[in-house]
Every structure is written in structure tokens, then in C-alpha cells.
Design goal:
5-stranded mixed sheet, 242 residues, 8 helices, Nucleotidyltransferase, domain 5, alpha/beta, 31% helix
Length: 242
Amino acid sequence: MLILSIDTSTKYESVALLEDENLKAEYCIYCPSSHSESLLSLINRVLLDKKLDIKDIDGICVSLGPGSFTGLRIGLSVAKGLAFGLKRPLVGISTLEALALQVPATDPIKISPMLDARKSEVYTALFQAKSCCEIKRLANDMVISPKSWLENLKGKKTIFVGDGAFLYRDLIEEILGENAFIASPIFSIPHASTVGLIGLKRLKNNDVDDINLLTPLYTRPPDAEVSKRKGSFEPIVSNPCF
């Protein structure tokens, strides 16, 4: 099965081709402006490098966030357009889950991906490392203040990954002490190849998403929507199950 995978959830843009679990090609570029200016070109480039046509693709995987609202909309719009036009299955994947899977860790350590959500908050979740290629989700994606989140993790050996882990490194080490581990920056960039690996399992099980219903995992409303409410907004926090 040949998979095209896309990630535009952060300031980095990544496109990958996977043939089953084997990575055939991947490009990852720093894209601080707009993903709309380069995403289609990057997709075309990765296909040309392998002498493939877009019609050769069997399925499409895309990162749904949380992350950059604009980036997520662009990535999902392109993925939907390709899936609809090619009549190919589409699968949306949590950016935080993909980040967690990138960390080389084994049981019993926990993994907490953290992305800067601004407003003194982070997007985060919690996973249990089972092996270097398998993780178990312990808490849903959420937006929360870093201090509140870290208080939940006291006494637990945890690896932190993502730009939020570096932004709040001092706070992480202050609260968790010797139980805190910060993953290398190389693992903190979401890669389309990891998104594709997660999505591949779902595609093989025919667990696909409805193109018409699939939406980004914003975790909290965009600023424009919040301002319409004319009131305070409480972070959306799922009950941790760990």
C-alpha cells in the first residue's frame, strides 16, 4: 500500500511517501509564513523524486492537530481535495500522537508531547511507551497551563517532546526534578512519515474518515470564535486516566 502523508501543524511542513511500513521519501522544510505557498510543490517534488504519479497513491494520511489553526486548515483542505479527486481513503491523525511515537522509549516511561499554544498554555497529552514503535494513550489531547499539567505528572518518569517542552523546560525540571527528561530537538518536529505509520494501520483495517465530516483538532476555538462569546474561555481539558 502506497501512502501519501502530510503534516502542516507547526512552522515546519512535511510530506512523506510510505510503501507499507517502508519510508520511500520525505521532505521536511521550515515554513514560517504560509503552507499554502509550498505544500503542493512539496507533494509534487516527493512524487517526482520516486517517479510516481499522484494516481499511484492508495491512501492519504494528514495531521489534524492540535497546532497552527491556519496550517491545519491548509493541510486538511489539500488532503481532502486529493482524496476526493482521486477517490482514495483519508485518515486524520493527532499531531501529539505522532510526536509521541517519534520518541525512542520503552516501558515503563511515559511520554508527554507539548506544543506551544500561546496564551501561557500548551497542547499536550500523555502516552505510555510500550516499545520503540508502540505507544498507548493515557490522556486525551488538551490545552492547559503547563504548571497545571505538570502537577499531574509529579513522581512519574516522563519524556517531554515538542517546542513546548523547550519553552517550559525550566518549569518542567523544577516540578518533576529527576523524573523529567527532555527529548532531543530532532524528535520535536512533527514528521509526516510518523503520521503515515499511524494512519497505515487504520487504512489496512479500513478504519477511514468521512471526508465531509473530518475537521482539524483545534482543541480550543480560534480566537475569532472566542471573541464572539464576549466572555471568559476555560481551557478544554479531558480527564486524565493515569
